[in-house]
Amino acid sequence: MFLTIVLRAKPKTKNVLVMCESIASGHRLNSVRERTGDKLEFIRFDPTIQQESIYREIKKLKGVKVSTAEQRMKSKFSPTSYLMEDL
């Protein structure tokens, strides 16, 4: 195996964007969960039937990098970085 192939490999992200579907009406929405976690199943308002419904994960879409408030504060290009310099 060539060294360039190993160096070009992307590391897997910690979180995954998944598509969830309502079992009542088929309405879909996207949500983020941990890669190692179980499949999502939750109750949320369904706009097509105007009631709360159970949503189940149907497929993974892609890996996503979720930033926390602490990471945004540490970023030097964040919109609030100029406020932190004055302190």
Automatic annotation (TrEMBL):
Annotated GO biological process: translation
Subcellular location: Mitochondrion
InterPro entries named among the record's database cross-references: Mitoribosomal_protein_bL33, Ribosomal_bL33_sf, Ribosomal_zn-bd
Domain of life, per lineage: Eukaryota
One annotated Gene Ontology cellular component of this protein: ribonucleoprotein complex
Gene3D superfamilies, per the entry: Ribosomal protein L33 (2.20.28.120)
Keyword flag Mitochondrion: yes
Keyword line: Mitochondrion, Ribonucleoprotein, Ribosomal protein
Family: Belongs to the bacterial ribosomal protein bL33 family.
Protein name as catalogued: Large ribosomal subunit protein bL33m
